[in-house]
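Quick question, first post here. What does this chain look like in 3D?
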Amino acid sequence: MRAMVLDKPRQPLQRRDVEKPRPSKGQLLVRIATCAVCRTDLHVTDGELPDPKLPLILGHQIVGHIEEIGEEVNLKFKVGDRVGIPWLGWTDGECAYCLSKRENLCDRARFTGYTIDGGYAEFTVADARFCFHLPDRYNDVEVAPLLCAGLIGYRSYRKTGDARRLGIYGFGNAAHLIAQVAVYEGRDLFVFTRPGDRTAQQAAKKRGAVWAGGSDELPPEKLDAAIIFASVGPLVPAALRALAKGGIVVCGGIHMSDIPSFPYADLWEERIITSVANLTRRDGEEFFKIAPRIPVKTETETFPLEQANIALDRFRGGKLNGTAVLVMNAS
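> Answer (accepted):
Ran it through. Tokens below.
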């Protein structure tokens, strides 16, 4: 099968013909239709995340159809079903975290496109327990970004509780999607972009933000919660200064630059800083119920599989018009 392979961080992916995988017990063999490109893919290729499986096939926003079913797979799946494969690819199911409904923190967890081969290829195998049926409303390109930007964004959003005044720092893929959920649920949305980025600020207002400005500005009123999607550590103290008493800052990325020191007074009065790690199956089940009702709309730009390096380079340079989605059978 065709695949784009990472041999070593900070090097381009290599186009290779590799052996088609076979499903083991509990696994599905999936013929991949699309795979969206995530910022985490950049973190892996740029060497910012430690100890990836090498050589590695990247990609964890995978959409495809089941071609073969391994032994002992739940009867909810059948050959031909369309499924989505997310970042969390396997957990042991028996540790204290798994048994307390915190499987996203499992010490032995494996991750698609990082410690398990992922979706920059024509086929992949995946643990059936961590695959999702996808809403019929979306085609294969539209639904791909929901599998990470959507799911991690949704988990970050849910951690803000019932906050009425919600701030979002960084208006990339996840923020575009979660802004739609927040507006649908009646939140007052405040969006922070790079200083001077009027284009992104106007886009935020079109999504329903009541205010949009630079990350160096304070909002016109104090926030009940803020989500930081940008991987920029100095945004944490900036967000704290924008919070009302008892507010929460949620760091929604897997990687972030160092957080600088800040006065204790900015944290006092029961403000909270928390992070989001991975996702749970419950997050996916909830999000894929609500997304079609809103409906959450994705903006995408497609690339054939062989142009994965171009998609990554354009993502790194901020030159994409939407989420990059690799299409396996692009004409």
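Residues 12 and 300 are 23 Å apart (CA to CA).
The mean pLDDT is 95.
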